[in-house]
Amino acid sequence: xxxxxxxxxxxxxxxxxxxxxxxxxxxxxxxxxxxxxxxxxxxxxxxxxxxxxxxxxxxxxxxxxxxxxxxxxxxxxxxxxxxxxxxxxxxxxxxxxxxxxxxxxxxxxxxxxxxxxxxxxxxxxxxxxxxxxxxxxxxxxxxx
Length: 144
Prior knowledge:
Blueprint (H helix, E strand, L loop, with lengths): L6 H28 L21 H13 L3 H13 L5 H23 L3 H28 L1
Helix pairs in contact: 1-2, 1-4, 2-4, 3-5, 4-5
């Protein structure tokens, strides 16, 4: 059985999200311990509550993990729509891999260096890939 080529980018981005989850845990737990946060007694709060409390570099990973749970949900939806419509064209596959590569690059920049301009450029380029996928799906619906 051959697999749809659009599934590769989906699996890759899910796998990368799990890598970021692990990186976040490995970074944050020691940072929390360093400032005296005891997970046995701490109650839940809102996202960002540890900003300014634990080291910023540890928080960068958490911020990125949250970002990977936001816009990429649209990516997953549109890729599965394209698959269901039979639109696994090479250009769509290229756009999907472009989106994933740019999101991974965005993660690495945010988690290590966190330069806003570089992050913005990567985000904008990945958004263009997502817009392209969405336009192809819309065209497929209109002509299908």
